[in-house]
Amino acid sequence: MADTKLFDVIVIGGGPGGYIAAIRAAQLGFNVACIDEWKNDKGGPAPGGTCTNVGCIPSKALLQSSEHYDQANHHFADHGIAVKGLEIDVAKMLARKDTVVKQNNDGILYLFKKNKITFFHGRGSFVKAVDGGYEIKVAGATEESLAGKHVIVATGSSARALPGVPFDEESVLSNDGALRVAAVPKKLGLIGSGVIGLEMGSVWRRLGSEVTILEGLPTFLGAVDEQVSKEAFKAFTKQGLKIELGVKVGEIKAGKKGVSVAYVDAKGEAKELAVDKLIVSIGRVPNTIGLNAEAVGLKLDERGAIVVDGDCKTSLPNVWAIGDVVRGPMLAHKAEEEGVAVAERIAGQHGHVNFNTIPWVIYTNPEIAWVGQTEQQLKAAGRAYKAGSFPFLANGRARALGDTTGFVKFLADAATDEILGVHIVGPLASELIAEAVVAMEFKASAEDIARICHAHPSLSEATKEAALAVDKRTLNF
């Protein structure tokens, strides 16, 4: 093993939480190392974690490609555009997706160089506590020994497999395999109607797959505001997604000709689903295997997640953990905020993450985005509130776009008018939600948004109108 290299901060994991933590720590004057083991198809480094390599970024690339195809196939005629001989080149679509991924990988490597961060390509793991810090081993092309005063663990998460049904990424797919399907499957099955399932189901449905989603819960998108989930369910069903709720999945058989899924539907009837490919999207598990946490006594919970306090401090002094490997929502932007906050706490500053204003987005069509509490949560808490909503059907820009599905919904405190939650289903909800996040961070009232001038014609006018609706004074509906 080479001589031990000394650092102020060592970050294990180069995903959104890890690389951002490394950059912020470097900005604050620390000597920083970042370790990441992701490889590209040539064996080279591919920092960015699940998000960049097999998650957020490639899925959005495929969603965009499939949306173009769907528009050309079904909606261009409405604009007077005639298309003949329309075809989908899946190989080229996947190649474009891979290019987008590589651009992001290369961008992170550039940022490491720009910020004078030492990057190590390999798997990082604890060895032992040493004077003033911890020894970390990097297992890569060559083995390296590092020592750091502070260690930030940002090792992310992996797809959860069904018991007894491992991912082979050929017939039974995780998010990774779902992004590499070489040809449009005639029949595609999904177990789980969460974010990944809906987004991947949307991609292949647009390209011609017959898609069936089996969801064990009796409700659709249970974490989403009920009014929004009902609107989304109606839209997805109309598009052709077949969604069965309240099912109990039984035996799954995978063979060369496809996959069969035995299940019992909500009425208690035994059924079987035969598909070419099956995507399993039933949640994710923290990546702590191989971290060698036991060597230093790093405390894990029953799920294998690293136990942290409100400041992301672990059971060990000067060891921190962020992102999917700790409690809280498994969202890339949550990990980024924690990474910044931890770097600032190491520097003696007061880093802050407000879990109540972390936005959520599902990039389907219609898009779904929300921040804050849902109406059912407010009812359960017994909190008095006012609600107001505005449909995109009455929005001029939405009409011009030809996409009027959905609405914007505000929930505000009945006495103070403070915004408690904003829920959007419709065009570009992912972009519109940012205004609501800013408003809630500043403890704005619904009236504050209602009295702000919004550009006309814009989709954001629906946000203003929904805020007006809280006081029952919409202007355009």
Write a structural description:
By secondary structure, the protein is of the alpha/beta class. It folds into three domains: 5-158 and 285-353, FAD/NAD(P)-binding domain (3-Layer(bba) Sandwich), CATH 3.50.50; 172-282, FAD/NAD(P)-binding domain (3-Layer(bba) Sandwich), CATH 3.50.50; 357-470, FAD/NAD-linked reductase, C-terminal dimerisation domain (Enolase-like, domain 1), CATH 3.30.390.30. The protein is built from 13 helices and 21 strands. A five-stranded mixed barrel has the order 1-2-3-4-5. Helix 3 packs antiparallel against helix 4.
Distance between the termini: 71 Å
CATH class designation of the largest domain: Alpha Beta
Number of strands: 21
Overall tally of domains: 3
Query: Which bin fits the share of residues in helices?
Result: 25-40%
Here the CATH topology of the largest domain equals FAD/NAD(P)-binding domain
Q: Which strand-content bin applies to the residues?
A: 25-35%
- The CATH H-level superfamily of the largest domain is FAD/NAD(P)-binding domain
- Please state how the strands of the largest beta sheet are arranged side by side: 1-2-3-4-5
The SS-based structural class is alpha/beta
Shape: globular
In short:
With 477 residues, this protein is α/β, with parallel strands linked by helices. The chain has helices spanning 16-27, 49-54, 56-74, 90-114, 175-178, 195-206, 226-239, 332-346, 375-381, 396-401, 429-441, 446-450, 461-470; strands spanning 5-12, 32-36, 118-130, 133-140, 143-153, 157-159, 172-173, 187-191, 210-214, 242-244, 248-255, 258-264, 270-275, 277-280, 284-286, 319-321, 360-362, 367-372, 385-391, 407-413, 419-426.
